């Protein structure tokens, strides 16, 4: 039996996951069904890249938008941009995620944010994490991932460097007590 679909959850990488790209990763699962899964990493920032530089690449004036840091969304297609945002804005190809947040990867969201007409809460990311059919389901049965509810507080208010620990704590887990190895019964 496969685990329940995880859309709208945060995947937290357990210590010792075995893939350095995902050490202490926090991934917002935006799509998970029988065909596979797609998530946006929200636990790491792209070094020396701000939102204004992203806008500049599309010749969009920054307007009054903040020069927020850009997240490392994942190892797949790292040049492709995504905006994870609150549900108070929707545009071309916006995907609502389990009534919790939305995902847009079209330029209209960048323009809206720059013009002060975009979502009230948002974060930009480059790249995504993707899993083929059944791949994430299989990973969930082994030591590696833990899930918690993706709340607006965790996504948009918790500082990035605290997000992994805060997400575990939201589930009543002290991350300092986690082991990098799994036991066997």
Automatic annotation (TrEMBL):
Q: Which GO terms describe its cellular component?
A: cytosol
* InterPro entries, A to Z: AlgH-like
HAMAP family attached to this UniProt entry: UPF0301
- Report the family membership: Belongs to the UPF0301 (AlgH) family.
Please identify the protein, giving its name as recorded. Answer: UPF0301 protein SCH01S_16_01290
Q: Which organism is it from?
A: Sphingomonas changbaiensis NBRC 104936
At the highest ranks, the source species' classification is: Bacteria, Pseudomonadati, Pseudomonadota, Alphaproteobacteria, Sphingomonadales
